[in-house]
Amino acid sequence: MPADVLVVSCGIFRDELAALGRAGKFPWPVRFLDSMLHMEPERLEQALTALVQSLAGQRIVLLFGDCQARMDLLASREGACRVKGHNCCELVLGREEYRRLRREGAFFLLPEWTARWREVFRERLGFVTPESARLFMQEMHRRIFYLDTGVVPVPAETLAEIGCYVGLPVEVKAVAPDRLADAVRKALEGFNE
């Protein structure tokens, strides 16, 4: 494992990576970007590009999904690579389980966005009333899965509030945050090829 590796991650994984680090399972230093940049792909691209350029000379692993159109271009820069995964939820669920649940109409929430759900739904997505949220969410989804990484207590009251707001049942699904460390290790294998 190269000693000069730095992980650049979406802030959605801040608590999970901290817990993995404390457990000795994530030995790499991390720089985080605010997860709300996902809602503004152009700003995300600008922030990532600036950060990657400022880290020239280091090996960088991007711990992001396909959150903006030029993610692969950033990952193709010398000294950079990216974990494999369409999005953050796929990274912690695994590809097959993610696809299976998506086919069943699942919408996913990770702990960080669950804590910020009002900002996500009302401010960022524009669902200022339960009716607008229900109209959109129920057209595309059948249920919500809260992906419990085991790092914070399951926010049962908040999940009930979200379910009521969007008119969908909410289920809790345990996931292993260790998959994040595994994804970084696999990405680093590309540096040795």
TrEMBL record:
Source species, domain of life: Bacteria
Domain DUF1638: start-end pairs: 32-182
Pfam families per the UniProt record, alphabetical: DUF1638
Protein name: DUF1638 domain-containing protein
Organism for this UniProt entry: Geobacter metallireducens (strain ATCC 53774 / DSM 7210 / GS-15)
